[in-house]
Amino acid sequence: MAPYASEDSESGARRRKAVRYAVPVAVVGVAAATIGLVPALASSGDPDLPDITARQLIEKIAKSDTEQLSGTVKISTDLGLPSLGGAAGGAAGGGLMGGGEHEGGGSSADPQSKLTELATGSHTLRVAADGPDRQKLSVLDDTSEYSVIHNGDDVWAYDSKSDEAYHAKQKQGAHSEDGTDGSDGSGDDAKKAPKGVPATPKELTDEILKAGGDTTSFSVDGTSQVAGRDAYRLQIKPKQSGSTVGAVTVSVDAKTGTPLKFSLTPAGGGAAVVDAGFTKVDFAKPAASTFDFKPSKGTKVTEADELKKAPRHEGSVKPKDLKADELKAGGLDDLNVIGKGWTSIAELKLPKEAGGLAAGKGSADMPPEASKFLSSLGDQVKGEFGSGTVYSTRLVNVLVTEDGKAYAGAVTKDALVKAANAG
């Protein structure tokens, strides 16, 4: 997945393109709920900036036309889960998409799997953008660097650790083979991020602003300095009880309206679940050479078309390979959303074996001892629905019942039990 650009429209006649820096943070899609705009004057703070209402600040963000910048971004994601590292990338890239470095024709530089590692832990990124056709994102490590470069019709990715490169040709307006708006790993739709994957910092804000309603309060929580620039702090809080989201804070550049930092803190307190922001930023036009890339002699280069033709690992399945009756058997047709806004809960029917595993009863593929260990990772709960196991992170909780249902959301355990009782 590369840095993406998309059109930012103010009205039918005024459409401008804004740069998106893609950083996979899956939990934000759950937290971005129905929002109501509540004007509030900015409180005193440092630096001393003119008072502004929350509505005016949101309008300032919407009118921002920043297309050229460069800088350093620090992103930290702490769900309370162990870091998956390359294993996460392998599962996402190899298991579903047929890619991954362990399969024939795969590449360790393939963005489809490599950037999945950003979903956990702390990472330092270097970003640059010059309009919708030139962006670069580099993930910095102690001894290596991974970069994705979009320059005109070409998308390059390079992993210095393995000395491997990935190359795809950009096709304007293309879509993935399964008809979705997301990339299929070929680079054919490199400008469009997969659905549900926000970027940082601006696209994270856009995800939240898409919704509207009376479940959320907006206020301006003073001012701050981010990357040496004066900024307003836009604070977003749920009005509903039962949500595990404490607050979302977006630091907005006072001059350009560009979001510089995004932070999501849990209701239970402690460090932010997601914290992403610039530590250095420059709004000058980056040098054209920033987006140049040519593989060195000896570098293994994998073309996107090669990955599409390569045989997939046994057992790997692309979404398009699944038939309608198989999807129904998996319960995807039975997805139901309970409630609204920040306390929305997804209800899904699972295979009956899943409920038994959660209760520690085992299955043909898993002995009771292993199943009991799995269930011990969660909390056993009972209610009118029967019994089940709640698996928790710092933001998202999931209840799996013995009768094979799952309830998931950025809500408390009690809210899940209540939803299961009602169901």
Walk me through the topology.
Elements: E1 4-9, E2 15-20, H1 27-31, H2 54-63, E3 68-77, H3 86-96, H4 111-114, E4 121-130, E5 134-140, E6 145-151, E7 154-159, E8 164-169, H5 202-209, E9 216-226, E10 229-238, E11 245-253, E12 259-266, E13 274-282, E14 300-303, H6 304-309, H7 324-329, E15 336-338, E16 345-349, H8 352-358, H9 368-376, E17 379-383, E18 386-392, E19 397-401, E20 405-409, H10 413-422
Parallel strand pairs: 8-14
Antiparallel strand pairs: 1-2, 3-4, 3-13, 4-5, 5-6, 6-7, 7-8, 9-10, 10-11, 11-12, 12-13, 15-16, 16-20, 17-18, 18-19, 19-20
Describe, in plain words, how this protein is organized in 3D.
With 423 residues, the protein is of the alpha+beta class. The protein folds into two domains: 4-309, Clam (outer membrane lipoprotein receptor (LolB), chain A), CATH 2.50.20.10; 322-422, TATA-Binding Protein (2-Layer Sandwich). The protein has helices at residues 27-31, 54-63, 86-96, 111-114, 202-209, 304-309, 324-329, 352-358, 368-376, 413-422, and strands at residues 4-9, 15-20, 68-77, 121-130, 134-140, 145-151, 154-159, 164-169, 216-226, 229-238, 245-253, 259-266, 274-282, 300-303, 336-338, 345-349, 379-383, 386-392, 397-401, 405-409. The longest helix is centred in the N-terminal third of the chain and has 11 residues, at 86-96. The chain is flat, with a radius of gyration of 22 Å. Mean pLDDT is 73; it is low at 1-45, 83-105, 173-200 and 313-332.
Features:
single chain; about 425 residues; alpha+beta; outer membrane lipoprotein receptor (LolB), chain A; TATA-Binding Protein; 2 domains; 12-stranded mixed sheet; 6-stranded antiparallel sheet; 20 strands; about 35% strand; flat; disordered N terminus
